[in-house]
Amino acid sequence: MKTKRQLHFAYFWQGFVHLDDGSEWFLADPSWRHDVIWWQSGETVKLDRHHGQTLLRNLIRGETVSLETAETVEWKLAA
């Protein structure tokens, strides 16, 4: 099953893709020739889940990158 959600690209910082809905992602293959580093804030993107993959399509630039969910890591200080 294929689902699409239209959003806006917020920014790319320290390896993480940030979307305007507050979600964070990281590139599944950072060596792709299409790199989100050049995308501009506010560009229209579609989050597309298809055959077990999550793709982010930039509709302005016609580029697609493969994403993986970014999990929040909690650091705890040892007592």
Structural class: mainly beta
Catalogue the unreliable spans: none
Please state the CA-atom Rg, rounded to the nearest Å.
Answer: 14 Å
Largest sheet: 6 strands, antiparallel, barrel
| Tally of DSSP helical segments | 0
How large is the share of residues in beta strands?
over 45%
The largest beta-sheet arranges its strands as 1-2-3-6-5-4
- The mean pLDDT is 84
Into which percent range does the helicity of residues fall? under 10%
Number of strands: 6
**Distance between the ends:** 48 Å
Q: Looking at the structure, what is the overall shape? A: globular
Q: Strand-and-helix sequence, N→C?
A: EEEEEE
Task: Characterize the structure shown.
With 79 residues, the protein is mostly beta strands. 0% of the residues lie in helices and 49% in strands. It has a six-stranded antiparallel barrel with strand order 1-2-3-6-5-4. It is globular and about 45 Å long. The mean pLDDT is 84.
Summarize this entry quickly:
The protein has 79 residues and is an all-beta fold.
Q: What does the secondary structure layout of this molecule look like, with pairings?
A:
Layout: E1 3-13, E2 16-19, E3 24-27, E4 44-50, E5 53-58, E6 63-69
Features:
79 residues; mainly beta; 0% helix; six-stranded antiparallel beta barrel; single chain
